[in-house]
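Deliverable D5.2: sample structural annotation.
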Amino acid sequence: MSVPCVAVERERGETVRERLADADLLDGDHRIAVEGGIIYIPVTDPSAVPVEFSDRLVERDAAERERPRTPADLLGYEPSLERLGDIVILDEDDDDRAREIADAVLASDLPCATVLNRASPIEGELRVRRWEVLAGNGTETVHREYGHEFALDVAEVYFSPRLATERHRVIEQVEPDESVVDMFAGVGPYAVPMAARGADVVACDLNEAAIAYLEENAERNGVADRVTAIAGDVRETADVYADTADRLVMNLPHSADEFLDTAVSLAGEECVIHYYDIQHEDDPFGPGERAIRDAAGDDYDVAVETERVVRSYAPHEYNVCLDVRLTRA
């Protein structure tokens, strides 16, 4: 059967395979093949292949791979699962059903060290939740995303793997030598890759555990020299970086508007703000744009470059992002 493949020299095969795996593009239904020093790696969506490999796309016959056993194969229904590193996360109110799914996860071929069930909603200023450990013995893991590794403990920090595509969209806009302030940095899923692209990043977070992981992750990914991690409220800790930022990340969608005065004070002569918000479907972008314009006042010209629905958040509500350029008036 003819399928799309990325064709690269054999010595580059593992590096490219890992890059495609990080982008969730590997076609698990077909086998990788090697011929004449070239390795052919089947992919699921050729249009999503990273640009550096787009000229290596070919169509090629590939043998079908025997499919591993999934939890759904064992259960007879498709459970709702989320994977974070080697943790599988459930969101089940029924204890018996949760344990049935956990047993199926462990009996399947799904790589997994721990199965957790959500035991509370996201709570408090630090936006963490409680967990029930159904299998395994911990809540710490290492998550891979677009070629970077992030150590974290889901019981101590907030992290959503569902936002990987959105993070990558923003990160791809960063140019070398930019000055970036990530105002709510968490364990570094924006800050670390931005630093890897050559930016100097100031990464702030109220959660001291998140900052400790961020520092570890900067070291882990070889960018510690480009990341300055600051624990505390960015409104109180980042004054020294006023008027310097070429780019600001404001991923605190429930209350980012409360930090816009600080964002404007951090902005340099020209600055792009990635502003995340949660709003009703009737006007998902208007409140954020108005809040940014009010904060900028007469000091900056404001141009909205992108309005993007990131995901559905609740009935009739969207998690959205506005990419907004401030230019000093």
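Annotation notes: The chain has three domains: 2-61, 71-138, 161-328. Residues 7 and 40 are 5 Å apart (CA to CA).
The annotation will be released with the project's public dataset once the embargo ends.
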